[in-house]
Each structure stands twice: as C-alpha cells, then as structure tokens.
Design goal:
Number of strands: 16
Strand content: 25-35%
Structural class: alpha+beta
Length: 462
C-alpha cells in the first residue's frame, strides 16, 4: 500500500494578504516608466539575509547548531488568545460545517503586515492580535525566536514555516519594511509585473513547493491596483508516537448535523494524557518524541463544540461595552498563562481511543472576521500603511487555504495565508477510560515546548 495513504493526518494552510493602492499622492505617478515610480526594492540589503534564504534548508535540519531562545510568554499568550478569538468567530458563523485553520500561518502573515502599519492602523492590528503592549522591535525579535524554535522540532516531524513578499514592480515599497521582514521572518522578496499572467504562476508555484504540493496555489489573478502580496505557507507532517493498527480500523456510525453517516474509525488502547469533566473528554495523541501533540476534545452528549471554546480563554465580554478583561495577555505568572491553562489539566491514564480518519480542504476569506475582531480600519481608505509605502494603501483580501488528512500513520497538514469552557472541577479517572469519537469534535495541533497552536479544527462531518 502506498505509504502516503497511511498517514494519520495532514494539514496545509495558505494565507494571502493583498494590499491595493488607493490612489497616487500628488506628484506621484503609477507609470513604471516614471523614475519616481521605480520599485524601491534593492538588490541587496547589506547584512540582511538574502531573500532566497527562505527556500534553503540547513545541511543537517534534524540537528540545529544552536538551541532556541526562551519565548516571550506575552507573545504566546497573545497568540493563543488570538487563535481562540479567530476560531470562535468563524465557528459561530458556520457551526454545522467543518472548519480547519492554521493560527500560526495567519499570525505570521499579519506580523509581516504589522511592520508596514502606522498610527491608528498599527494600534488596531496590535489590539486585534493582542500585542499592543509590545514594542515593534520586541515583537519582531520574539516572533523570530518563536519561528526559530519551531524549526525542526523532532526527527519524526516535518514543520516548515515559509514567508514571502511579492511586490508590484510599478509600486515603490520602503526598503526598511522589506529588510525587517527578511531579517525577522526570513521572507523571500521578489518584485513582479502584476500585469503579466506569469506572475500568478510564479507565486502559486512557490505556494505549491512550500506545501509539498498539498495546496496548488492561492492567487487566481493580480490587478495593476494590487500593490503587494504577503504570503505565508505552513507545512506539517508527523508520525504518531504509537501508530494505529489499520487492521483495527472499522466502519462505524458518526453523528453529523445532517444525520448519521459511516466513517472509518481507528482504534487503539494504551496509556495517554487525558482528562474528563461533565462537559467533555479530551486526549493528547503525540507525534514522534512527544513535543507536538494532536489534542482531541469531544463534547459530552448534549454539548457542542461552541460550549468548549471558553476552556481555552480567560477572555470575558464586559456587558454593554464589548471590551475584554485585560488579564488575557498578562502571562508573567506561568500558572496564569493562557498557554498552560488547559494543557496542564491532562494526566496520564490508561484507556481506549476510537478516532475517525478524515481528510479536509477549505478556503476562507477572513476580511469580515478580522473586522469583527477589531482590524476593520485596515480594510478602509483611512488605513495607514505609511511604513510600507508612501502611496495610500488598504488591505484588499485575506485568503486562507488549508488541507488536512488524519489516518493510522500520522498527520500531514499545510496552510497558506495571503493578505491582498470554562471547565468544571477535574478529577483523575479512577479506571481506564473509553473515548469513542463518533460525533463532532474539536482538535488542536500544538507545540508543547513553546505553547504555539499550529492548527485548530472543528470536525463535524469527517
């Protein structure tokens, strides 16, 4: 049997962030023949890493030469809160549909954009992703530390986070914006003729290459008014620490919102990190050396996925104001950090897990969701991206594509982003548990060393 068909699962994400030119300022021209409109994309950036660095792989990727730095806990707390907020809004919009996103991919694309924002737009983006209390230099340095820590986390895991910036050759982009993104996010930078159809192929080929072919592309067309495209491609492939035996996989009924359907339910017994409350059962299924885990949360009968989401957040809406409790990013005390709040509830326990195989693909537009979360200004003519270009600009689109497959061997996932419960008291189970995932469930693919959420999904119809 083809080994690929034995993967436990996979996820791919693509996010594209597209910016459009609102109009030329007085004295400026959009004519590429006009010297004032030549792209200010220099061929070199001094000591800044070459733009092709993102395409290169270290000689020995499984043995990094230097250990990763400690990650700023405020960055992880903010990342976790943003992940839950974003997922919650999307899940409420389509509670009866499958949903799978890569918060790390979306965050990387927004982080690159953040470096071009100024004034109220900078504040709006910072507030949305929860990093308004971090200085830009500290945010970039912490983001670089996180990205480096996530590279090559385990010999049994492939994890790649690639960034790129594609500029319209008729639009001058500020060198500082490009150099910061090259330095801190290892972004590939390339200037293209957006009127040439070949440019779409160039970008999509980069996406395909950096998601191992799981996502064919993110861009359908480019317009002359498009100024710049920010793209993040995140790829994950991991084998279970203990593979499921395919001989034990059997057809079983699964309760979807539309009724029962037959799915292939994998079956395994062993010792797992597990916890249970009156509202849910939860299990951690590890990959490789157990640094990365797929957390599966199964609502008890009568509960929904939406009922579980408060488990991951200390955020509380204030009546009549819509504001959030300020403690959500106060993670100076690790016992209160969002990143540890739910993960610390798991304890080793013997039991049986039955989990469906599933394979999903999705494509999302995130403009309205990000507007709901507070980033609306960036999508209007009043947006201020003066640290990116002197020409007035606004975000046109935020596209997010994902692919995920889970089976007996492991998980493979990819994502591309482009921009153009409260739980009741937990008691240790007194006997081996039985967890049969035969109804909609929540899953989170998390790096336990940094606390970063790589992928998050609501599986209602596997």
């Amino acid at each position: 049997m083809n080994p690929i068909n034995l993967k436990l699962g996979g996820t791919f994400l693509a996010i594209a962030l597209m910016l459009s030119t609102i109009g030329c300022q007085p004295g400026q021209s959009a004519d590429p023949k006009d010297p004032t409109s030549k792209p200010s994309v220099p061929s070199t950036f001094g000591n800044v890493p070459n733009s092709k660095a993102a395409d290169r792989t270290p000689a020995n990727p499984l043995n990094p030469s230097t250990p990763s730095k400690p990650i700023n806990p405020k960055l992880i707390a903010a990342h976790t809160q943003f992940s839950v907020d974003l997922f919650s809004v999307l899940q409420k919009q389509t509670p009866d549909k499958n949903l799978f996103i890569s918060p790390i991919s979306i965050s990387q694309a927004i982080a690159m954009l953040y470096n071009g924002a100024a004034g109220d737009t900078l504040k709006a983006i910072g507030s949305t992703v929860g990093i308004e209390d971090l200085k830009l230099a500290d945010f970039n340095a912490s983001s670089e530390d996180l990205r480096n820590a996530l590279e090559y986390p385990d010999p049994s895991v492939q994890l790649s986070i690639a960034n790129s910036i594609w500029t319209n050759q008729s639009t001058p982009i500020k060198p500082d914006f490009l150099s910061r993104n090259q330095r801190f996010y290892k972004a590939k930078v390339e200037s293209l003729d957006f009127t040439n159809p070949q440019s779409v192929k160039t970008i999509n080929n980069w996406v395909k290459r950096n998601t191992q072919g799981k996502i064919e592309g993110i861009v359908e067309e480019l317009k002359e008014s498009d100024k710049l495209l920010l793209v993040n491609a995140t790829y994950f492939k991991g084998t279970w620490t203990k593979a499921f035996d395919p001989k034990l996989t059997k057809p079983q009924p699964f309760n979807t919102p539309e009724g029962k359907k037959t799915v292939q339910l994998m079956d395994q017994q062993g010792s797992y990190r597990y916890f249970e409350t009156d509202d849910l059962q939860a299990i951690a299924l590890p990959y490789g050396k157990r640094r990365l885990n797929l957390y599966v949360f199964l609502p008890k009968e009568g509960k929904t996925i939406g009922d579980l989401l408060p488990l991951f957040s200390k955020s509380t809406d204030t009546k009549n104001t819509g504001t959030k409790n300020a403690e959500i990013i106060d993670s100076s005390d690790s016992s209160n950090a969002l990143t540890h709040e739910w993960a610390s509830k798991f304890a080793t326990n013997p039991g049986r897990i039955q989990l469906p195989r599933f394979k999903l693909e999705s494509k999302l537009r995130l403009e309205s969701t990000l507007t709901t979360l507070g980033m609306g200004l960036a999508f209007t003519p009043k947006a201020d991206f003066s640290n990116l270009s002197d020409r007035p600009s606004q975000i046109d689109q935020v596209l997010h594509k994902t692919f995920v497959e889970v089976n007996e061997v492991g998980t493979e996932a990819a994502a591309v982003t482009s921009i153009g419960i409260r739980t009741t008291s937990v008691e240790a189970p007194k006997k081996p548990f039985a967890m049969k995932v035969d109804r909609p469930f929540l899953c989170i693919l998390r790096d336990d060393q940094t606390g970063a959420i790589l992928f998050m999904g609501a599986i209602v119809n596997p």
